[in-house]
Amino acid sequence: MVAPSLKLQDLIEEIRGAKTQAQEREVIQKECAHIRASFREGDPLHRHRQLAKLLYVHMLGYPAHFGQMECLKLIASPRFTDKRVGYLGAMLLLDERQDAHLLITNSIKNDLSQGIQPVQGLALCTLSTMGSAEMCQDLATEVEKLLLQPSPYVRKKAILTAVHIIRKVPELSNIFLPSCAQLLHERHHGVLLGTITLITELCERSPAALRHFRKVVPQLVQKLRTLVTTGYSTEHSISGVSDPFLQVQILRLLRILGRNHEESSEAMNDLLAQVATNTDTSRNAGSAVLFETVLTIMDIPSAAGLRVSSPMPLPLASPTLIRYVALMSLLRLVQSDHNAVQRHRPTVVDCLQETDASLSRRALELSLALVNSSNVRAMTRELQAFLESCPPDLRADCASGILLAAERFAPTKRWHMDTILHVLTTAGTYVRDDAVANLTQLIAGAQELHAYSVRRLYSALAEDISQQPLVQVAAWCIGEYGDLLLEGNCEDIEPLQVEEEEVLALLERVLQSHMSLPATRGYALTALMKLSTRLRGDNNRIRQVVSIYGSCLDVELQQRAVEYNALFRKYDHMRDTLAFHPLRAAILEKMPLVERGGPQVDEEAKESKAAAKLSEAAPVPAEPQASKLLDLLDLLDGPSEDAQHPPPLDPSPGGALVQLLDLPYAPPPPAPIPSLKVFEREGVQLNLSFIRPPGTPALLLITVTVTNSSGGDVTHFICQAAVPKSFQLQLQAPTGDTVPAQGGLPITQLFRILNPNKTPLRLKLRLTYNHFGQPVQEIFEVNNLPVETWQ
After folding, report:
1. Residue 118 neighbours by CB under 8 Å, 6+ apart
2. Could you tell me the sign of the dihedral formed by the alpha carbons of 621, 627, 629, 633, in that order?
3. In sequence order, which residues have a C-beta less than 8 Å from that of residue 345 and are 6 or more positions away?
4. Rg (alpha carbons) of the chain, rounded to whole number
């Protein structure tokens, strides 16, 4: 005899009454032992009760796999009470990963062919929940027959099961097309809602079904018009909106049918305008309908006037959800019809001050997208005002957007420089990595702004030395144009009288500040060294400061200080009556303007290119020592078009400098490796270029270049890579995480791959970024790399 066990209600009460987890486990283990014993005894009358208790135990998270075969027995039983629990157990305990689920295929087929509606409903629910592809192929014909059954209860469940079958086996779509056309005439709400869902699934997965159902667009338009004007039934209305669930499903289907199809779009334009105008947005139900309406208008080739009016006039008194929907719609529309969105610009700018973080972020993205050459001054003022008070999580995006807009639409160089300077002063460390390089290049290329720039930057530096990008630009500018700072003849700003001692004291304060980064101290140290050739006073103070950093713990600073001290020692004895040092002045002269063309080249590529030019260039006749030093300076700063290999130098002060800098000699470079395009989507393109340094043939340098030719910026870009275990991979930091629209400055990143065995290289890449306000993730493998990369 089987020991008596608890009823389901008693088991629930006892489990809930357990005071500790140990007591709960004890109760469940004891009851599971009774259930196992009952299953072994084969008690057919109480099997469904035992399985019901086991299902409750399973829902609490305890193992219940030993009840799977009992589910099959109960499904095969002729009693409805057994079938009900058996099908419920199959939905909870069985799935596609277990072969046991295939054993109930015949039972489901038999139950579907019976005329008992409750049994047919149970079988359909089970098939739609855990049916595998094999089960769907075997039972699709039976489900198709039930789509036209007279009972709405069975038809509704058969439609939902057909949706599951199409998702599992898209090839079976054709057998449901004739039935769907008839089901569109249904008046039953559940059947009609399920039919719209089924047609939507068919159109998304089958081009043939999409062409077939474009014929029913007028019928769908009529149904939606009836819903909007007269309503379907009062019992399905929510907050005064007539059947919003059915409206949303019809609008979603119309969006799919009208996409890239002029005739279908024209048939629904008037109705979409009516829905967008008359929908009550004071409740969430109306907001949902309006949201789907706006998405539909944006996706189909609708009239221009409808696109402009659909996002709503964005009243500030509207609920936050409505304004968010409107901002998202305008953000999508601005890529295709920029001028139409401009009339909403004042309200969009007002939304920047919203306390809701998501709303202000969308408003910021849209405000940046609205900037053009005609409104750049006004929009930049608004964005700069927002930058001063925006939350920290938006400051980096706002600063980056202002810099990109200024770079693309700056009316004058002076305005461009003032804008970057304001961003550096306000955003500080939140600015992009290339902001310092852009501003220094801008200043160097505008000779008429040299005096104005150095005075503005000196004044900003004197007020605040905590903003590191600002300090770096100011130190560079003071070092290059410090002589203009002391002249005091700039008419663009108020007269500024600066003494040499004040300039040196300010740079020393930067060097001694605990807030200064090592890179910032490097800028300041170089500025001091350059001022030694621009100031007419005694250089002893500069020499003392430079000598201090000869024992600095930072290797980069220490190396610079040692080299600068060497310049002082070797060339100070060669001064003429004017106390001028021609050799040191030639080395420390103003930097030449670097032309900006294409992506930035990584440091290793620069060194390799310089070495190649050094080895290929023919010797030239002897030149004065100052000219030789200029050539050396060009090699240090980067490859130059005019750089040539200098002739061998005799032991002299110039030759000593060559030994100090220790320039390496490189053999002739190998043939270039062709670049490779590995990714392209919606204007975003990723190219790979390759370099194998001659000295280390096992090393491969891959430069990843990301460009963007679309109308929207690519933000938060991350590129990750993986290689087989026989390789060694090192990823260096990218030049940024934002690729501006319309061919803006690309992102570059360097991969260093060591291939000691010289085996074919396979590279797996994962890209994540945001584009047009949507997150994108792509994972793909690159296995077609040129043979020159590994042979």
Report:
1. 80
2. negative
3. 367, 370, 375, 379
4. 37
In the chain, which residues have pLDDT < 50? 1-3, 311-317, 574-580, 597-666
Alpha-carbon distance of 215 to 103, in angstroms, equals 42
Question: How many Å separate Cα 605 from the centre of its chain?
Answer: 28
| Rounded distance between C-alpha atoms, residue 778 and residue 728, angstroms | 23
d(CA 308, CA 270): 14
CA dihedral 599, 602, 603, 609 (to 10 degrees): -70
**Residue 274's pLDDT is what?**
86
> How many C-beta neighbours within 10 Å does residue 392 have?
7
Quick check: 504 and 528 in contact, CB under 8 A? yes
Q: How far is CA 230 from CA 192, 222, 226, 685, in A?
A: 17, 12, 5, 51
Q: Is 547 exposed, middle or buried (0-12, 13-18, 19+ CB in 10 A)?
A: middle
Pairing of the two strands 747-754 and 774-782: unpaired
What DSSP character marks residue 634?
H
290: left (phi over 0), alpha (psi -120 to 50) or beta: alpha
According to DSSP, residue 665 is labeled: P
Phi, psi of 767 (to 5 degrees): -110, 130
Q: What are the tokens at 393?
A: 């999580």
- What is the C-alpha end-to-end distance of the chain, expressed in Å? 78
- Amino acid of residue 266: E
- Burial category of 54 from C-beta neighbours within 10 Å (exposed 0-12, middle 13-18, buried 19 and up): buried
Query: pTM for this one?
Result: 0.57
Residue 165 to residue 324: CA distance in whole angstroms: 36
Q: Which amino acid type is present at position 697? A: P
Alpha-carbon gap, residue 210 to 502, rounded angstroms: 76
Q: Which token pair is 168? A: 């599992």
Q: At a CB cut-off of 8 Å and minimum separation 6, what does 22 contact?
A: none
Nearest to 605 by CA among 723, 743, 705, 720: 705
784: three-class secondary structure by DSSP = coil
Given a contact cutoff of 8 angstroms between Cβ atoms, the answer to whether 663 and 690 are in contact is no
Residues 481, 488: Cα–Cα separation, whole Å: 12
